[in-house]
Specification:
The complex is a heterodimer of chains A (199) and B (275).
Chain A: E1 12-17, H1 22-29, E2 40-44, H2 54-59, E3 66-67, E4 80-82, E5 88-92, E6 96-100, H3 112-123, E7 127-131, H4 140-148, E8 152-156, H5 165-173, E9 178-180, H6 182-198
Parallel strand pairs in A: 1-2, 1-7, 2-4, 3-4, 7-8, 8-9
Antiparallel strand pairs in A: 5-6
Helix pairs in contact in A: 1-6, 3-4, 4-5
Chain B: H1 7-21, H2 30-43, H3 49-58, H4 60-70, H5 81-98, E1 102-107, H6 113-125, E2 131-137, H7 140-148, E3 150-152, H8 156-166, E4 176-179, E5 182-185, E6 193-197, E7 209-213, H9 223-235, E8 237-244, E9 260-264, E10 269-272
Parallel strand pairs in B: 1-2, 1-7, 2-6, 7-8
Antiparallel strand pairs in B: 3-5, 4-5, 8-10, 9-10
The chains are: A alpha/beta (199), B alpha/beta (275).
Chain lengths: 199, 275
């Protein structure tokens, strides 16, 4: 028996991270199978004025394709979507994404709260939110919204996180279903992958 | 207000605005529109969406403020410096090869940072006096601000580094003076610019242009509305005129995408090839 709260109901995964999240996320992407059956939205804090290089850096080890979406692009389930530099990324009802240039939130654009909150609204209880290492509280409110709407919340174990402010902030505002080390997050995703395929 | 705003409430709100004020927000992109409404509700301490609706119903003067708050007015000078370099090196020289005059429309000019960028660019190319620039926005208050040609000093560091990366001729300090925490730009830069209020959604086509800048404006619209607005932008361009949209926007889903060709995919500059 698995110790994870797994279910075949899940339709999407949203991951947020900031300082110290690049290594663990790269590691996760190096293991998730190319045809993992859910879309993954990645919102990572990044330099506002560097448009290029981030997708490429993440893609080096990733088995899945990583793509910075255009405004109003349709969501394909086999892709990883990375919030572009200097835009907020929202998930819309009707299986599309939208971008915006609203002001900085938690000093960030893209802001994790915006991606997580809009994804929680679009996917309701069928969303898994994962918040990784980071040096501010962005993403905590988004995780709260995911929990409020019945989704599953996972944070990187603050003990393992290079900077624990971000996962700890989520822990302080909402119920977290799983506190996991990077290797356990990988285990979780691989088990979910198996379950979705056989279910 | 902690509660989630319901779609039915937003619909009620947009219906009222349409009936009473003849503005149509129905096809604004849902998640950003909802965030803007939430922001207004918090800013003015409304308890419910219904109380916001009542206020709009009873107080026409509040509607102007409402429009100002709905509109996203975050912008910077020379945003995406490489875009401005392409304008300088390719697009504008190309237009001026065939035309004596350069007609430019900033559709959704916000607080005017792009208008200032354009005037500086044209001045440095020595063609500002051959140019005719129209800048429009839905929000009257922001147009008044744009007309002043002032920018908050705290934004000037970013604007200045953008200008450097654009490889402007000088340093940006040449163009403004500091006054009360503001960068006040040389009013002479605005000599070829006129501002007017215009709503891309309800407004009519009012002129023809060689170059339209509508960057990161249509991202606030849903696909239906983007499609409608593109018809208007298309009609507002001379044949072989150029349309620039934001770096992560795309026209490919629109009905009349085939009436344009991509001139620069990286900077999202299109050229109208068919009427």
């Amino acid at each position: 028996m698995t110790r994870f709260k797994l279910s075949t109901k899940y339709k999407a995964i949203a991951i947020g991270g900031s300082a110290g999240s690049f290594q663990p996320i790269t590691k996760i992407l190096s293991v998730i199978p190319k045809d993992f059956p859910l879309p993954i939205f990645l919102c990572l804090h990044r330099l506002k004025h560097v448009r290029h290089g981030f997708v490429e850096a993440l893609s080096i080890k990733s088995l899945k394709s990583i793509h910075e979406p255009f405004d109003k692009e349709s969501i394909k389930r086999e892709l990883v979507y990375l919030a572009p530099a200097n835009y907020h990324l929202s998930i819309e009802l009707g299986n599309t994404m939208s971008l915006s240039t609203e002001g900085l939130i938690n000093n960030s654009r893209p802001a994790i709260d915006i991606t997580l909150e809009s994804a929680a609204y679009a996917y309701r209880d069928k969303l898994i939110g994962i918040l990784m290492s980071g040096a501010n509280k962005d993403g905590a409110l988004g995780m709260q919204k995911i929990k409020d709407r019945g989704g599953l919340t996972i944070i990187q174990d603050p003990e393992e996180s290079m900077i624990s402010t971000m996962p700890n902030s989520a822990l302080s505002v909402t119920e977290i279903d799983h506190v996991l080390k990077t290797d356990q997050i990988i285990e979780f995703l691989l088990e979910l992958d198996q379950m979705l395929r056989s279910g | 207000m902690q509660q989630e705003i319901e779609i039915a409430e937003l619909r009620k709100l947009t219906e009222l605005i349409k009936d009473k004020y003849d503005y149509d927000f129905k096809n604004y992109a849902m998640s950003s529109f909802k965030r803007r409404i939430k922001r207004i509700v918090e800013l003015y301490k409304f308890k419910t969406i219904d109380s916001l609706i009542d206020k709009l119903e009873s107080t026409p003067s509040f509607f102007e403020e409402f429009v100002s708050e709905i509109t996203v007015n975050v912008t910077e000078m020379f945003r995406d410096p490489s875009f401005w370099s392409v304008l300088k090196e390719q697009i504008i020289p190309n237009i001026l090869l065939n035309h004596n005059k350069l007609n430019v429309w900033h559709a959704g000019c916000s607080s005017g940072e792009e208008v200032l960028s354009m005037t500086i660019l044209l001045e440095e190319m020595g063609v500002l006096d051959r140019s005719n620039i129209i800048a429009t926005d839905i929000d009257t208050a922001i147009i008044d601000r744009a007309k002043k040609g002032t920018v908050s000093l705290k934004n000037m560091e970013l604007n200045s580094s953008n200008y450097e990366r654009f490889e402007g001729k000088y340093t940006i300090d040449k163009y403004f003076q500091e006054q009360n925490g503001k960068a006040v730009f040389d009013p002479n830069l605005m000599r070829q610019v006129s501002f007017r209020k215009h709503d891309l959604v309800k407004g009519v086509v009012f002129s023809k242009f060689d170059l339209i800048l509508c960057r990161n404006v249509m991202i606030y619209f849903n696909q239906t509305l983007q499609n409608d607005v593109l018809y208007k932008l298309h009609e507002s361009l001379f044949r072989y005129g150029y349309l620039a949209i934001g770096s992560k926007e795309s026209l490919i889903w629109c009905d009349i995408a085939n009436k344009f060709i991509v001139v620069n995919n990286e900077e999202k500059i299109y050229k109208k090839i068919k009427d």
